[in-house]
Amino acid sequence: MSAYIVSILTEGAIFGIMALGLNVIWGWSGDFDLAYYGYIAIGAYMTLVLTIGPAVAPAHYILGLQLPYPLAVVIAVLSAMAVGLVVGLIALRHLRGIYFSIVTLGAVYVMYVLAGQYVPLFDGYNGLSGLFDPMGDWFGLDYLSYQWFLMGLCLVMFALVLLFMWRLSGSRFGMALRTLREDERAAAAFGRDIYRLKLKGYVLGAGVGGFAGALFAAYLSAFNPSAWSPVEIIVLYAAVLVGGRGNIWGVVLGVFIMGLVVQESTRFLPEVPGHPQIVLALRGVIIGLVLVLFLRFRPQGLLPERRYVDPEPKLEPATRTA
Amino acid sequence: MNTQPKTAGKPPALEVRGLTKHFGGVYAVEGCSFEAPMGQVTGLIGPNGAGKSTAIDLISGFKLPDSGTVLFKGRALEGLPPHVISRLGLIRTFQAPREWPGLTVLENVVMANWDSGREGFLRGLVGLGSAQRGRAADELVKAREILDEFGLTKLRNERAGNLSGGQKRLVEFARIRMAQPQLVILDEPMGGVNPVLGERMALAIEAFIASGTSVIVVEHNLPFIERVTQHVIVMAQGTVIAEGPFETLRSNRDVIDAYLGEMVKQ
Protein backbone atom coordinates (compact mmCIF):
# COMPACT_ATOMS: atom_id res chain seq x y z
CA MET A 1 0.00 0.00 0.00
CA SER A 2 2.77 2.44 0.86
CA ALA A 3 4.47 1.60 -2.44
CA TYR A 4 1.22 2.50 -4.15
CA ILE A 5 0.99 5.85 -2.35
CA VAL A 6 4.63 6.63 -3.15
CA SER A 7 4.07 5.99 -6.85
CA ILE A 8 0.83 7.98 -6.91
CA LEU A 9 2.45 10.98 -5.22
CA THR A 10 5.51 10.84 -7.49
CA GLU A 11 3.36 10.65 -10.61
CA GLY A 12 1.03 13.32 -9.26
CA ALA A 13 3.90 15.74 -8.66
CA ILE A 14 5.27 15.16 -12.18
CA PHE A 15 1.80 15.49 -13.69
CA GLY A 16 1.33 18.68 -11.67
CA ILE A 17 4.49 20.24 -13.10
CA MET A 18 3.31 19.32 -16.60
CA ALA A 19 -0.06 20.97 -16.00
CA LEU A 20 1.52 24.13 -14.54
CA GLY A 21 3.64 24.51 -17.69
CA LEU A 22 0.61 24.05 -19.91
CA ASN A 23 -1.21 26.64 -17.82
CA VAL A 24 1.32 29.29 -18.88
CA ILE A 25 0.65 28.62 -22.56
CA TRP A 26 -3.09 27.99 -22.46
CA GLY A 27 -4.18 29.47 -19.15
CA TRP A 28 -2.33 32.78 -19.30
CA SER A 29 -1.29 33.36 -22.89
CA GLY A 30 -4.43 31.71 -24.26
CA ASP A 31 -3.00 29.45 -26.94
CA PHE A 32 -4.40 25.94 -27.37
CA ASP A 33 -1.05 24.25 -27.89
CA LEU A 34 -1.10 20.64 -29.03
CA ALA A 35 2.69 20.27 -29.27
CA TYR A 36 3.11 20.44 -25.50
CA TYR A 37 3.57 16.72 -24.96
CA GLY A 38 6.44 16.90 -27.43
CA TYR A 39 8.40 19.10 -25.00
CA ILE A 40 7.79 16.63 -22.20
CA ALA A 41 9.11 13.87 -24.45
CA ILE A 42 12.18 15.89 -25.45
CA GLY A 43 12.93 16.47 -21.77
CA ALA A 44 12.69 12.74 -21.09
CA TYR A 45 14.65 11.58 -24.14
CA MET A 46 17.41 14.12 -23.67
CA THR A 47 17.81 13.24 -20.00
CA LEU A 48 18.26 9.61 -20.99
CA VAL A 49 20.79 10.09 -23.80
CA LEU A 50 22.80 12.35 -21.50
CA THR A 51 22.96 9.88 -18.62
CA ILE A 52 22.77 6.26 -19.78
CA GLY A 53 26.12 6.09 -21.55
CA PRO A 54 27.08 5.00 -25.07
CA ALA A 55 24.80 2.82 -27.14
CA VAL A 56 25.61 -0.87 -27.34
CA ALA A 57 24.76 -2.52 -30.68
CA PRO A 58 22.15 -3.10 -31.92
CA ALA A 59 20.88 0.04 -30.14
CA HIS A 60 21.52 3.44 -31.70
CA TYR A 61 21.10 6.87 -30.23
CA ILE A 62 22.77 10.25 -30.19
CA LEU A 63 25.22 11.50 -27.55
CA GLY A 64 25.30 8.57 -25.14
CA LEU A 65 26.99 10.52 -22.37
CA GLN A 66 27.19 9.79 -18.67
CA LEU A 67 26.59 13.20 -17.17
CA PRO A 68 25.43 13.67 -13.61
CA TYR A 69 21.63 13.67 -13.53
CA PRO A 70 21.14 17.34 -12.47
CA LEU A 71 23.32 18.58 -15.32
CA ALA A 72 21.44 16.35 -17.76
CA VAL A 73 18.17 17.82 -16.51
CA VAL A 74 19.39 21.36 -17.17
CA ILE A 75 20.44 20.47 -20.72
CA ALA A 76 17.18 18.60 -21.29
CA VAL A 77 15.18 21.65 -20.22
CA LEU A 78 17.22 23.89 -22.51
CA SER A 79 16.67 21.44 -25.40
CA ALA A 80 12.90 21.49 -24.86
CA MET A 81 13.01 25.30 -24.76
CA ALA A 82 15.05 25.42 -27.98
CA VAL A 83 12.55 23.22 -29.83
CA GLY A 84 9.70 25.24 -28.30
CA LEU A 85 11.35 28.39 -29.61
CA VAL A 86 11.52 26.99 -33.15
CA VAL A 87 7.89 25.83 -33.09
CA GLY A 88 6.79 29.10 -31.47
CA LEU A 89 8.67 31.25 -33.97
CA ILE A 90 6.71 29.58 -36.76
CA ALA A 91 3.33 29.02 -35.14
CA LEU A 92 2.94 32.24 -33.14
CA ARG A 93 3.94 34.66 -35.85
CA HIS A 94 0.52 35.08 -37.42
CA LEU A 95 -1.56 32.08 -36.44
CA ARG A 96 -4.13 32.06 -33.66
CA GLY A 97 -6.95 29.84 -32.46
CA ILE A 98 -7.56 26.68 -34.40
CA TYR A 99 -4.86 27.50 -36.99
CA PHE A 100 -2.24 27.69 -34.27
CA SER A 101 -3.49 24.40 -32.83
CA ILE A 102 -3.26 22.65 -36.20
CA VAL A 103 0.31 23.80 -36.77
CA THR A 104 1.35 22.67 -33.27
CA LEU A 105 -0.40 19.34 -33.86
CA GLY A 106 1.67 18.99 -37.02
CA ALA A 107 4.82 19.86 -35.06
CA VAL A 108 4.20 17.26 -32.37
CA TYR A 109 3.55 14.54 -34.95
CA VAL A 110 6.80 15.42 -36.69
CA MET A 111 8.55 14.99 -33.32
CA TYR A 112 6.67 11.76 -32.63
CA VAL A 113 7.44 10.22 -36.01
CA LEU A 114 11.07 11.34 -35.88
CA ALA A 115 11.57 9.88 -32.42
CA GLY A 116 9.73 6.68 -33.28
CA GLN A 117 10.98 6.00 -36.80
CA TYR A 118 14.38 7.62 -37.14
CA VAL A 119 16.48 5.03 -35.32
CA PRO A 120 19.82 6.92 -34.98
CA LEU A 121 18.11 9.62 -32.90
CA PHE A 122 16.55 7.85 -29.89
CA ASP A 123 16.68 4.23 -31.08
CA GLY A 124 13.33 4.44 -32.83
CA TYR A 125 10.52 2.33 -31.55
CA ASN A 126 12.66 0.56 -28.95
CA GLY A 127 13.33 3.81 -27.19
CA LEU A 128 15.82 4.34 -24.41
CA SER A 129 16.27 2.69 -21.06
CA GLY A 130 18.78 2.26 -18.29
CA LEU A 131 18.46 5.33 -16.11
CA PHE A 132 18.43 3.52 -12.80
CA ASP A 133 17.97 5.50 -9.60
CA PRO A 134 19.73 8.71 -10.65
CA MET A 135 21.55 10.30 -7.70
CA GLY A 136 20.77 7.21 -5.61
CA ASP A 137 24.44 6.29 -5.37
CA TRP A 138 25.30 9.70 -3.99
CA PHE A 139 23.23 9.02 -0.94
CA GLY A 140 23.77 5.25 -0.83
CA LEU A 141 20.10 4.44 -1.24
CA ASP A 142 18.71 0.98 -1.87
CA TYR A 143 15.81 0.32 -4.21
CA LEU A 144 13.04 0.89 -1.67
CA SER A 145 14.45 3.99 0.00
CA TYR A 146 15.16 5.39 -3.46
CA GLN A 147 11.44 5.37 -4.25
CA TRP A 148 10.88 7.55 -1.21
CA PHE A 149 13.77 9.80 -2.20
CA LEU A 150 12.41 10.25 -5.74
CA MET A 151 8.94 11.01 -4.38
CA GLY A 152 10.43 13.65 -2.10
CA LEU A 153 12.47 15.09 -4.95
CA CYS A 154 9.45 15.31 -7.25
CA LEU A 155 7.28 16.87 -4.54
CA VAL A 156 9.96 19.46 -3.71
CA MET A 157 10.39 20.27 -7.40
CA PHE A 158 6.61 20.55 -7.77
CA ALA A 159 6.53 22.95 -4.82
CA LEU A 160 9.34 25.02 -6.36
CA VAL A 161 7.59 25.19 -9.74
CA LEU A 162 4.40 26.16 -7.94
CA LEU A 163 6.24 28.94 -6.09
CA PHE A 164 7.78 30.10 -9.36
CA MET A 165 4.35 30.18 -11.03
CA TRP A 166 2.79 31.90 -8.05
CA ARG A 167 5.34 34.73 -8.35
CA LEU A 168 4.79 35.03 -12.07
CA SER A 169 1.02 34.79 -11.89
CA GLY A 170 0.55 38.02 -9.98
CA SER A 171 3.42 39.83 -11.67
CA ARG A 172 3.23 42.38 -14.42
CA PHE A 173 4.61 39.71 -16.78
CA GLY A 174 1.71 37.40 -15.94
CA MET A 175 -0.76 40.24 -16.39
CA ALA A 176 0.74 41.21 -19.75
CA LEU A 177 0.36 37.61 -20.96
CA ARG A 178 -3.30 37.73 -19.94
CA THR A 179 -3.91 40.92 -21.92
CA LEU A 180 -2.83 38.90 -24.97
CA ARG A 181 -5.32 36.18 -24.10
CA GLU A 182 -8.10 38.73 -23.57
CA ASP A 183 -7.54 40.94 -26.62
CA GLU A 184 -4.18 41.08 -28.29
CA ARG A 185 -4.95 43.98 -30.64
CA ALA A 186 -5.72 46.12 -27.62
CA ALA A 187 -2.54 44.82 -26.00
CA ALA A 188 -0.54 45.97 -29.04
CA ALA A 189 -2.32 49.32 -29.05
CA PHE A 190 -1.12 49.80 -25.47
CA GLY A 191 2.51 48.97 -26.19
CA ARG A 192 2.84 45.20 -25.88
CA ASP A 193 5.01 43.36 -28.37
CA ILE A 194 2.59 40.49 -28.96
CA TYR A 195 4.93 38.14 -30.81
CA ARG A 196 7.82 38.50 -28.36
CA LEU A 197 5.64 38.24 -25.29
CA LYS A 198 3.79 35.20 -26.59
CA LEU A 199 7.11 33.56 -27.49
CA LYS A 200 8.43 34.18 -23.99
CA GLY A 201 5.39 32.50 -22.48
CA TYR A 202 5.55 29.64 -24.95
CA VAL A 203 9.25 28.90 -24.40
CA LEU A 204 8.77 29.13 -20.64
CA GLY A 205 5.93 26.60 -20.86
CA ALA A 206 8.02 24.30 -23.06
CA GLY A 207 10.86 24.47 -20.54
CA VAL A 208 8.58 23.50 -17.65
CA GLY A 209 7.23 20.64 -19.78
CA GLY A 210 10.80 19.52 -20.49
CA PHE A 211 11.57 19.62 -16.78
CA ALA A 212 8.58 17.41 -16.02
CA GLY A 213 9.80 15.07 -18.76
CA ALA A 214 13.26 14.89 -17.16
CA LEU A 215 11.71 13.84 -13.85
CA PHE A 216 9.43 11.43 -15.67
CA ALA A 217 12.51 9.77 -17.21
CA ALA A 218 13.97 9.22 -13.73
CA TYR A 219 10.67 7.76 -12.56
CA LEU A 220 10.19 5.43 -15.53
CA SER A 221 13.95 4.83 -15.98
CA ALA A 222 13.10 4.46 -19.67
CA PHE A 223 11.25 6.26 -22.43
CA ASN A 224 9.93 5.12 -25.79
CA PRO A 225 7.15 6.01 -28.21
CA SER A 226 4.62 3.83 -26.40
CA ALA A 227 5.23 5.91 -23.27
CA TRP A 228 3.92 9.04 -24.91
CA SER A 229 1.42 9.75 -27.53
CA PRO A 230 0.37 13.26 -28.50
CA VAL A 231 -3.20 12.55 -27.36
CA GLU A 232 -1.99 12.29 -23.74
CA ILE A 233 -2.22 16.05 -23.80
CA ILE A 234 -6.00 15.77 -23.46
CA VAL A 235 -5.69 14.60 -19.85
CA LEU A 236 -3.51 17.63 -19.08
CA TYR A 237 -6.01 19.95 -20.71
CA ALA A 238 -8.78 18.28 -18.74
CA ALA A 239 -6.87 18.90 -15.50
CA VAL A 240 -6.33 22.60 -16.27
CA LEU A 241 -9.93 23.04 -17.41
CA VAL A 242 -11.53 21.22 -14.47
CA GLY A 243 -9.40 23.01 -11.89
CA GLY A 244 -9.61 26.48 -13.38
CA ARG A 245 -7.72 27.76 -16.37
CA GLY A 246 -5.25 30.49 -15.43
CA ASN A 247 -5.45 29.85 -11.68
CA ILE A 248 -2.41 27.92 -10.42
CA TRP A 249 -4.29 26.63 -7.35
CA GLY A 250 -7.06 25.54 -9.67
CA VAL A 251 -4.52 23.68 -11.76
CA VAL A 252 -3.28 21.87 -8.64
CA LEU A 253 -6.86 20.92 -7.76
CA GLY A 254 -7.49 19.81 -11.34
CA VAL A 255 -4.42 17.58 -11.29
CA PHE A 256 -5.65 16.00 -8.07
CA ILE A 257 -9.14 15.42 -9.45
CA MET A 258 -8.04 14.12 -12.84
CA GLY A 259 -5.44 11.93 -11.16
CA LEU A 260 -8.23 10.49 -9.07
CA VAL A 261 -10.49 10.08 -12.12
CA VAL A 262 -7.79 8.45 -14.23
CA GLN A 263 -6.51 6.17 -11.49
CA GLU A 264 -9.60 5.34 -9.54
CA SER A 265 -12.63 5.58 -11.80
CA THR A 266 -12.00 2.19 -13.31
CA ARG A 267 -10.49 0.50 -10.30
CA PHE A 268 -13.56 -1.45 -9.27
CA LEU A 269 -14.72 -2.47 -12.71
CA PRO A 270 -14.70 -6.20 -13.26
CA GLU A 271 -12.43 -7.46 -15.98
CA VAL A 272 -14.19 -8.54 -19.13
CA PRO A 273 -12.69 -11.82 -20.32
CA GLY A 274 -11.24 -11.59 -23.79
CA HIS A 275 -11.31 -7.77 -23.82
CA PRO A 276 -8.21 -6.62 -21.93
CA GLN A 277 -8.39 -3.15 -23.42
CA ILE A 278 -11.87 -2.34 -22.20
CA VAL A 279 -10.81 -0.74 -18.90
CA LEU A 280 -8.40 1.55 -20.74
CA ALA A 281 -11.09 2.48 -23.24
CA LEU A 282 -13.58 3.23 -20.47
CA ARG A 283 -11.01 5.49 -18.86
CA GLY A 284 -10.86 7.48 -22.08
CA VAL A 285 -14.64 7.68 -22.18
CA ILE A 286 -14.76 8.99 -18.61
CA ILE A 287 -12.08 11.64 -19.29
CA GLY A 288 -14.01 12.74 -22.38
CA LEU A 289 -17.24 12.89 -20.42
CA VAL A 290 -15.66 15.02 -17.69
CA LEU A 291 -14.29 17.39 -20.35
CA VAL A 292 -17.63 17.77 -22.10
CA LEU A 293 -19.56 18.29 -18.87
CA PHE A 294 -17.17 20.97 -17.66
CA LEU A 295 -17.11 22.76 -21.01
CA ARG A 296 -20.89 22.81 -20.97
CA PHE A 297 -21.65 23.62 -17.33
CA ARG A 298 -18.55 25.19 -15.78
CA PRO A 299 -16.06 26.34 -18.42
CA GLN A 300 -14.26 28.57 -15.91
CA GLY A 301 -13.39 25.49 -13.82
CA LEU A 302 -13.85 24.79 -10.12
CA LEU A 303 -11.52 27.60 -9.03
CA PRO A 304 -11.85 30.38 -11.62
CA GLU A 305 -8.96 32.70 -12.22
CA ARG A 306 -8.90 35.20 -9.39
CA ARG A 307 -8.70 38.88 -10.07
CA TYR A 308 -7.25 41.62 -7.95
CA VAL A 309 -10.00 43.06 -5.72
CA ASP A 310 -9.40 46.68 -4.90
CA PRO A 311 -10.37 47.41 -1.29
CA GLU A 312 -13.00 50.03 -0.45
CA PRO A 313 -11.34 53.40 -0.12
CA LYS A 314 -11.38 54.73 3.42
CA LEU A 315 -13.63 57.76 3.22
CA GLU A 316 -14.89 60.18 5.82
CA PRO A 317 -18.55 59.46 6.62
CA ALA A 318 -19.53 62.85 5.20
CA THR A 319 -18.00 62.19 1.81
CA ARG A 320 -19.42 58.70 1.69
CA THR A 321 -22.99 59.96 1.60
CA ALA A 322 -22.14 62.51 -1.09
CA MET B 1 -4.64 71.65 -50.67
CA ASN B 2 -4.16 75.23 -49.60
CA THR B 3 -6.50 75.18 -46.64
CA GLN B 4 -3.73 73.98 -44.32
CA PRO B 5 -4.47 74.65 -40.67
CA LYS B 6 -2.70 77.59 -39.14
CA THR B 7 -0.52 76.07 -36.45
CA ALA B 8 1.38 79.26 -35.69
CA GLY B 9 4.84 77.77 -36.25
CA LYS B 10 4.17 74.69 -34.12
CA PRO B 11 4.97 71.42 -35.82
CA PRO B 12 1.84 69.34 -36.43
CA ALA B 13 1.17 66.42 -34.12
CA LEU B 14 0.69 64.20 -37.14
CA GLU B 15 1.53 64.69 -40.77
CA VAL B 16 0.28 62.27 -43.41
CA ARG B 17 1.61 62.49 -46.98
CA GLY B 18 0.37 60.54 -49.98
CA LEU B 19 -0.78 57.54 -47.96
CA THR B 20 -1.97 54.73 -50.26
CA LYS B 21 -3.27 51.22 -49.66
CA HIS B 22 -5.13 48.91 -51.97
CA PHE B 23 -6.70 45.53 -51.38
CA GLY B 24 -6.63 43.64 -54.66
CA GLY B 25 -7.93 46.13 -57.19
CA VAL B 26 -9.74 48.28 -54.65
CA TYR B 27 -8.01 51.43 -53.46
CA ALA B 28 -9.08 51.84 -49.85
CA VAL B 29 -6.81 54.83 -49.31
CA GLU B 30 -5.25 56.69 -52.21
CA GLY B 31 -2.93 59.67 -51.94
CA CYS B 32 -4.33 60.70 -48.60
CA SER B 33 -2.58 63.76 -47.10
CA PHE B 34 -3.42 65.83 -44.06
CA GLU B 35 -2.03 67.38 -40.93
CA ALA B 36 -3.37 67.26 -37.42
CA PRO B 37 -2.29 70.26 -35.35
CA MET B 38 -0.76 69.85 -31.93
CA GLY B 39 -2.97 70.63 -28.96
CA GLN B 40 -6.21 70.53 -30.91
CA VAL B 41 -9.05 68.17 -31.69
CA THR B 42 -9.09 67.21 -35.35
CA GLY B 43 -12.18 65.54 -36.78
CA LEU B 44 -11.94 62.95 -39.51
CA ILE B 45 -15.25 62.45 -41.26
CA GLY B 46 -16.51 60.91 -44.46
CA PRO B 47 -19.12 58.48 -45.72
CA ASN B 48 -18.81 54.73 -45.11
CA GLY B 49 -16.06 53.28 -47.24
CA ALA B 50 -14.20 56.59 -47.44
CA GLY B 51 -11.09 54.89 -46.07
CA LYS B 52 -11.04 56.46 -42.61
CA SER B 53 -10.59 53.23 -40.67
CA THR B 54 -7.98 51.94 -43.10
CA ALA B 55 -6.13 55.25 -42.76
CA ILE B 56 -6.09 54.79 -38.97
CA ASP B 57 -4.81 51.24 -39.33
CA LEU B 58 -2.03 52.50 -41.61
CA ILE B 59 -1.06 55.32 -39.26
CA SER B 60 -1.05 53.12 -36.15
CA GLY B 61 0.89 50.28 -37.76
CA PHE B 62 -1.92 47.71 -37.80
CA LYS B 63 -1.69 47.65 -41.60
CA LEU B 64 1.28 48.36 -43.85
CA PRO B 65 0.82 51.15 -46.42
CA ASP B 66 1.72 50.55 -50.08
CA SER B 67 3.25 54.01 -50.20
CA GLY B 68 3.20 57.36 -48.47
CA THR B 69 4.66 58.72 -45.27
CA VAL B 70 3.37 59.28 -41.77
CA LEU B 71 5.29 61.72 -39.58
CA PHE B 72 4.63 61.82 -35.86
CA LYS B 73 6.62 64.47 -33.96
CA GLY B 74 8.78 64.60 -37.11
CA ARG B 75 9.50 60.86 -36.98
CA ALA B 76 8.51 58.48 -39.79
CA LEU B 77 6.11 55.80 -38.56
CA GLU B 78 5.42 53.76 -41.67
CA GLY B 79 6.69 50.21 -41.39
CA LEU B 80 6.89 50.31 -37.59
CA PRO B 81 4.87 47.69 -35.70
CA PRO B 82 1.88 48.84 -33.60
CA HIS B 83 3.52 48.42 -30.20
CA VAL B 84 6.47 50.62 -31.19
CA ILE B 85 4.14 53.35 -32.43
CA SER B 86 2.18 53.06 -29.20
CA ARG B 87 5.35 53.38 -27.13
CA LEU B 88 6.31 56.50 -29.10
CA GLY B 89 3.12 58.10 -27.81
CA LEU B 90 0.47 57.52 -30.46
CA ILE B 91 -2.41 55.39 -29.22
CA ARG B 92 -5.51 54.47 -31.14
CA THR B 93 -8.85 52.99 -30.16
CA PHE B 94 -11.03 50.68 -32.22
CA GLN B 95 -14.54 50.97 -33.62
CA ALA B 96 -15.80 48.33 -31.21
CA PRO B 97 -14.51 48.80 -27.66
CA ARG B 98 -11.63 46.42 -27.09
CA GLU B 99 -11.52 45.97 -23.37
CA TRP B 100 -9.76 42.98 -21.80
CA PRO B 101 -13.03 41.31 -20.81
CA GLY B 102 -11.73 38.87 -18.18
CA LEU B 103 -9.76 41.53 -16.32
CA THR B 104 -11.39 43.98 -13.94
CA VAL B 105 -12.07 47.59 -14.85
CA LEU B 106 -9.22 48.69 -12.59
CA GLU B 107 -6.84 46.18 -14.16
CA ASN B 108 -7.88 47.37 -17.61
CA VAL B 109 -6.86 50.89 -16.66
CA VAL B 110 -3.64 49.88 -14.88
CA MET B 111 -2.50 47.69 -17.78
CA ALA B 112 -3.03 50.56 -20.22
CA ASN B 113 0.21 51.87 -18.80
CA TRP B 114 3.06 50.03 -20.47
CA ASP B 115 6.03 49.89 -18.11
CA SER B 116 9.07 48.25 -19.65
CA GLY B 117 10.92 48.17 -16.32
CA ARG B 118 8.30 45.98 -14.70
CA GLU B 119 7.01 43.70 -17.42
CA GLY B 120 9.99 41.44 -17.97
CA PHE B 121 9.91 37.78 -17.05
CA LEU B 122 12.83 38.04 -14.61
CA ARG B 123 11.27 41.06 -12.93
CA GLY B 124 8.19 38.96 -12.37
CA LEU B 125 10.26 36.21 -10.82
CA VAL B 126 12.65 38.06 -8.56
CA GLY B 127 10.32 40.92 -7.69
CA LEU B 128 10.48 44.67 -8.06
CA GLY B 129 13.08 47.09 -6.81
CA SER B 130 11.98 49.86 -4.48
CA ALA B 131 11.76 52.44 -7.29
CA GLN B 132 9.61 50.07 -9.32
CA ARG B 133 7.40 49.32 -6.33
CA GLY B 134 6.96 53.05 -5.93
CA ARG B 135 5.94 53.34 -9.57
CA ALA B 136 3.47 50.50 -9.15
CA ALA B 137 1.90 52.20 -6.13
CA ASP B 138 1.69 55.55 -7.92
CA GLU B 139 0.14 53.85 -10.89
CA LEU B 140 -2.60 52.34 -8.72
CA VAL B 141 -3.37 55.69 -7.12
CA LYS B 142 -3.53 57.34 -10.53
CA ALA B 143 -5.79 54.60 -11.91
CA ARG B 144 -8.20 55.07 -9.00
CA GLU B 145 -8.28 58.83 -9.60
CA ILE B 146 -9.04 58.33 -13.27
CA LEU B 147 -11.81 55.84 -12.50
CA ASP B 148 -13.29 58.38 -10.12
CA GLU B 149 -13.12 61.04 -12.81
CA PHE B 150 -15.14 58.81 -15.15
CA GLY B 151 -17.60 57.71 -12.47
CA LEU B 152 -16.37 54.13 -12.66
CA THR B 153 -15.22 53.72 -9.06
CA LYS B 154 -18.12 51.45 -8.13
CA LEU B 155 -17.40 49.21 -11.10
CA ARG B 156 -13.64 48.97 -10.52
CA ASN B 157 -13.69 45.32 -9.40
CA GLU B 158 -16.19 44.24 -12.05
CA ARG B 159 -14.91 42.25 -15.00
CA ALA B 160 -14.83 44.62 -17.94
CA GLY B 161 -16.61 42.10 -20.17
CA ASN B 162 -19.75 42.45 -18.01
CA LEU B 163 -20.09 46.19 -18.64
CA SER B 164 -22.59 47.84 -20.97
CA GLY B 165 -21.45 49.25 -24.31
CA GLY B 166 -21.39 52.81 -22.99
CA GLN B 167 -19.46 51.83 -19.87
CA LYS B 168 -16.91 50.04 -22.03
CA ARG B 169 -16.42 53.30 -23.97
CA LEU B 170 -15.73 55.05 -20.68
CA VAL B 171 -13.20 52.38 -19.73
CA GLU B 172 -11.52 52.97 -23.07
CA PHE B 173 -11.29 56.70 -22.35
CA ALA B 174 -9.98 55.94 -18.88
CA ARG B 175 -7.28 53.76 -20.41
CA ILE B 176 -6.23 56.62 -22.68
CA ARG B 177 -6.05 58.94 -19.67
CA MET B 178 -3.83 56.41 -17.97
CA ALA B 179 -1.51 55.92 -20.93
CA GLN B 180 -1.26 59.68 -21.51
CA PRO B 181 -0.17 59.55 -25.14
CA GLN B 182 0.84 62.67 -27.05
CA LEU B 183 -1.73 61.85 -29.70
CA VAL B 184 -4.81 59.68 -29.52
CA ILE B 185 -6.88 58.56 -32.49
CA LEU B 186 -10.43 57.77 -31.42
CA ASP B 187 -12.26 55.55 -33.89
CA GLU B 188 -16.00 56.29 -33.62
CA PRO B 189 -16.13 56.79 -29.86
CA MET B 190 -19.83 57.71 -30.03
CA GLY B 191 -20.94 54.38 -31.50
CA GLY B 192 -23.85 53.17 -29.38
CA VAL B 193 -23.49 55.96 -26.83
CA ASN B 194 -26.45 57.90 -25.44
CA PRO B 195 -26.49 61.74 -25.48
CA VAL B 196 -25.79 62.14 -21.76
CA LEU B 197 -22.73 59.93 -22.01
CA GLY B 198 -21.83 61.78 -25.21
CA GLU B 199 -21.55 65.01 -23.28
CA ARG B 200 -19.30 63.29 -20.76
CA MET B 201 -17.09 62.11 -23.61
CA ALA B 202 -16.92 65.60 -25.08
CA LEU B 203 -15.69 66.82 -21.70
CA ALA B 204 -13.22 63.95 -21.54
CA ILE B 205 -11.83 64.97 -24.93
CA GLU B 206 -11.37 68.50 -23.61
CA ALA B 207 -9.55 67.01 -20.65
CA PHE B 208 -7.25 65.09 -23.02
CA ILE B 209 -6.27 68.39 -24.66
CA ALA B 210 -5.74 70.02 -21.28
CA SER B 211 -3.41 67.22 -20.23
CA GLY B 212 -1.29 67.56 -23.37
CA THR B 213 -2.82 64.85 -25.54
CA SER B 214 -3.73 65.95 -29.07
CA VAL B 215 -6.80 64.21 -30.48
CA ILE B 216 -7.97 62.92 -33.84
CA VAL B 217 -11.55 61.73 -33.75
CA VAL B 218 -13.25 59.70 -36.45
CA GLU B 219 -16.99 60.03 -36.10
CA HIS B 220 -20.27 59.86 -38.00
CA ASN B 221 -22.09 61.88 -35.38
CA LEU B 222 -21.76 65.37 -36.91
CA PRO B 223 -23.19 67.38 -34.00
CA PHE B 224 -20.54 65.75 -31.84
CA ILE B 225 -17.85 66.66 -34.39
CA GLU B 226 -19.12 70.24 -34.40
CA ARG B 227 -19.11 70.26 -30.59
CA VAL B 228 -15.56 68.98 -29.99
CA THR B 229 -13.36 69.75 -33.01
CA GLN B 230 -11.45 72.83 -34.06
CA HIS B 231 -10.49 71.42 -37.41
CA VAL B 232 -12.16 68.85 -39.65
CA ILE B 233 -10.80 66.69 -42.45
CA VAL B 234 -13.27 65.20 -44.91
CA MET B 235 -12.38 61.97 -46.68
CA ALA B 236 -14.17 60.35 -49.58
CA GLN B 237 -13.05 57.50 -51.82
CA GLY B 238 -9.74 57.13 -50.04
CA THR B 239 -8.56 60.70 -50.19
CA VAL B 240 -9.05 64.08 -48.50
CA ILE B 241 -11.60 66.19 -50.36
CA ALA B 242 -11.86 69.14 -48.02
CA GLU B 243 -10.71 70.44 -44.66
CA GLY B 244 -11.23 73.38 -42.38
CA PRO B 245 -13.36 74.37 -39.43
CA PHE B 246 -16.69 72.57 -39.37
CA GLU B 247 -18.77 75.73 -40.15
CA THR B 248 -16.87 76.38 -43.38
CA LEU B 249 -17.54 72.82 -44.54
CA ARG B 250 -21.31 73.16 -44.34
CA SER B 251 -21.30 75.22 -47.50
CA ASN B 252 -18.64 73.19 -49.33
CA ARG B 253 -20.35 71.58 -52.32
CA ASP B 254 -17.93 68.63 -52.53
CA VAL B 255 -18.56 67.81 -48.91
CA ILE B 256 -22.31 68.09 -49.30
CA ASP B 257 -22.22 65.85 -52.35
CA ALA B 258 -19.94 63.28 -50.82
CA TYR B 259 -21.23 63.10 -47.32
CA LEU B 260 -23.83 65.46 -46.03
CA GLY B 261 -25.83 65.01 -49.21
CA GLU B 262 -25.87 61.32 -48.62
CA MET B 263 -27.09 61.89 -45.10
CA VAL B 264 -29.87 64.19 -46.30
CA LYS B 265 -30.98 61.70 -48.90
CA GLN B 266 -31.32 59.07 -46.20
Task: Please describe what this structure looks like.
The complex is a heterodimer of chains A (322) and B (266). By secondary structure, chain A is an all-alpha fold. Helices cover 67% and strands 1% of the residues of chain A. Chain A has helices spanning 2-28, 36-51, 69-91, 97-117, 119-122, 143-170, 172-182, 184-189, 194-220, 233-243, 248-264, 278-297, 317-321; strands spanning 128-129, 222-223. In chain A, α1 runs parallel beside α6, α3 (69-91) runs antiparallel to α9 and α10 (233-243) crosses α11 (248-264). The longest helix of chain A has 28 residues, at 143-170. The N and C termini of chain A lie far apart (66 Å). The model of chain A has no long low-confidence stretch (mean pLDDT 91). By secondary structure, chain B is an alpha/beta fold. Chain B has two domains: 14-99 and 176-265, P-loop containing nucleotide triphosphate hydrolases (Rossmann fold), CATH 3.40.50; 100-162, no CATH class. In chain B, α5 packs across α6 (165-179) and α6 (165-179) runs parallel beside α7. The model of chain B is unreliable at 1-7 (pLDDT under 50). The A-B interface holds A 164, 167-168, 171-176, 178-179, 181-183, 185-194, 200, 204, 305, 307-310, 313 and B 60, 62, 81-83, 86-87, 91-94, 98-104, 106-107, 111-115, 118-121, 123-125, 127, 136, 144, 153, 156-157, 159, 175, 179.
